C-alpha cells in the first residue's frame, strides 16, 4: 500500500506553508497567502495533508476507497489558489465504518485547533434542528450563520451529521453557497469545505461488497463507478434525507460521494489494536478475542460484516480489560 511508505512526521507550519506556496501559481493573492501564515487574519487554517494521509493509512480500517477519494479531492482543492466553488463531500455508509472519524481528522489536519477551531462548524439535527415546526426559523438562522462565518473566514469547514435525520428543505438554503457563482450575498465562499454525513446508501454499499465477496473479487477491486449510482438512488428515494427533492442533487453540486464499506472481522481486530495503542496498552490476545466474540456479524449465513463496524470497540475494550 503506497500510503504506508509515507513518513508520518508532522510537516510543521513552515513546511506546510512551503507546500501550499509551491502548489499555487503566481496568481495566488497576498491575502490568501497571509491567511495561511495565520498572523494576518483570523483563520487558523494549517493544512497538513501528509499527516492526514498517514493517519488515514494507519488507523482507518478497511476503507481504501474512502481514503483515496478524500485525499485526492482535498489535494486538488487546496492546490487551486482560486477555486470556482467550495469543496462538497457527501460521506455514506453503515454505522461505525469511519465517517465521523474521517470528518474529525479533516478538522484536525486542516485547522490548528481541530474541532475546537472557531472556523469548524458541526451541525447535528437532533441538537441544532430538533423541532420540525421551527423549520423556517432554522433556515433563516442557518443561512445567516454560514454567511457570517464565511465573511469572517473564507477557509471554513462545515460538517452536517446524520443527514438522513435532517428535515428535507432545510439544507436548500445552502444551495447558493455550494455552486460556482463568484459572490453570494457579498461573501467570498469558494474556499470553504462542506461535508455531509449519512447512513443512507449503507445497505446498498453492503450488498455490492457482499456480492463481490461471493464472486471472490478482492475488496480493493470495488470502485466508485459501482457504488455511486446506488448511493445516489438511495438518497433520491429516501423522503427522510436532507437532500430529498433537493436542487443540490439535481444540479450536481456534490463534488464526491464517498462510500464507506462494511467492516469484516480483521478490520474490527485492527480497530481493537488501535484502541489499545491509544490507551497506551500492549496488545492482549484475550481482550482482542473477547471483543471479536462479543461483536455481531451479518448476514446470518456468512457472518461477514460487523453490525456496528468499530463503533462499540472502545466500550467493549473497557468492559473486558
From the structure above, extract its key features.
5-stranded parallel beta sheet, identical protein binding, 321 residues, 9% strand, alpha/beta
Concise synopsis of the structure shown:
One of its GO terms (molecular function) is ATP hydrolysis activity. ATP binds at residues 93-100. With 321 residues, the chain is of the alpha/beta class.
Q: Could you explain how this protein is built, in words?
A:
Its main location: endoplasmic reticulum. There is one protein chain. This protein has a five-stranded parallel sheet with strand order 2-3-4-1-5. By secondary structure, it is of the alpha/beta class. α3 (49-59) packs antiparallel against α4, α9 runs antiparallel to α10 and α12 packs across α13. The two termini are 32 Å apart. α8 links the parallel β3 and β4 (193-198). It has 14 helices and seven strands.
Give the overall shape: globular
Quickly count the helices: 14
- The end-to-end distance, rounded to whole angstroms, is 32 Å
> What portion of residues is helical?
40-55%
Beta-strand percentage range: 5-15%
Q: Mind describing the biggest β-sheet?
A: 5 strands, parallel
How many extended strands?
Answer: 7
Family: Belongs to the ClpA/ClpB family. Torsin subfamily.
Signal peptide: 1-26
InterPro entries: P-loop_NTPase (IPR027417), TOR1A_C (IPR049337), Torsin (IPR010448), Torsin_1/2 (IPR017378)
GO molecular function: ATP binding; ATP hydrolysis activity; identical protein binding
Amino acid at each position: 500500500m503506497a500510503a504506508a511508505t509515507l513518513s508520518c512526521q508532522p510537516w510543521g507550519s513552515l513546511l506546510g506553508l512551503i507546500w501550499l506556496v509551491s502548489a499555487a501559481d503566481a496568481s495566488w493573492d497576498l491575502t490568501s497567502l497571509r491567511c495561511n501564515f495565520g498572523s494576518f487574519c483570523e483563520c487558523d487554517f494549517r493544512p497538513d495533508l501528509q499527516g492526514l494521509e498517514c493517519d488515514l493509512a494507519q488507523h482507518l480500517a478497511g476503507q481504501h476507497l474512502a481514503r483515496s477519494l478524500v485525499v485526492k479531492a482535498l489535494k486538488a482543492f487546496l492546490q487551486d489558489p482560486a477555486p470556482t466553488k467550495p469543496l462538497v463531500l457527501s460521506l455514506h455508509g453503515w454505522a461505525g465504518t469511519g465517517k465521523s472519524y474521517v470528518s474529525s481528522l479533516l478538522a484536525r489536519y486542516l485547522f490548528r485547533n481541530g474541532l475546537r477551531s472557531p472556523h469548524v462548524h458541526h451541525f447535528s439535527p437532533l441538537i441544532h434542528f430538533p423541532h420540525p415546526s421551527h423549520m423556517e426559523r432554522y433556515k433563516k438562522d442557518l443561512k445567516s450563520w454560514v454567511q457570517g462565518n464565511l465573511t469572517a473566514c473564507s477557509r471554513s469547514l462545515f460538517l452536517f451529521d446524520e443527514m438522513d435525520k435532517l428535515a428535507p428543505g432545510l439544507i436548500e438554503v445552502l444551495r447558493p453557497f455550494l455552486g460556482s457563482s463568484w459572490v453570494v450575498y457579498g461573501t467570498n465562499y469558494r474556499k470553504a469545505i462542506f461535508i455531509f454525513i449519512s447512513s443512507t446508501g449503507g445497505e446498498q454499499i453492503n450488498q455490492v461488497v457482499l456480492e463481490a465477496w461471493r464472486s471472490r473479487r478482492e475488496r480493493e477491486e470495488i470502485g466508485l463507478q459501482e457504488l455511486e449510482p446506488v448511493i445516489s438512488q438511495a438518497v433520491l428515494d429516501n423522503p427522510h434525507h436532507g437532500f430529498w427533492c433537493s436542487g443540490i442533487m439535481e444540479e450536481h453540486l456534490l463534488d464526491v460521494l464517498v462510500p464507506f464499506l462494511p467492516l469484516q472481522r480483521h478490520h474490527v481486530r485492527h480497530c481493537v489494536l488501535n484502541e489499545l495503542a491509544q490507551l497506551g496498552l500492549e496488545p492482549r490476545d484475550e481482550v482482542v478475542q473477547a471483543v471479536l466474540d462479543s461483536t455481531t456479524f451479518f448476514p446470518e449465513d456468512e457472518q461477514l460484516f460487523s453490525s456496528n463496524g468499530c463503533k462499540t470497540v472502545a466500550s467493549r475494550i473497557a468492559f473486558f480489560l
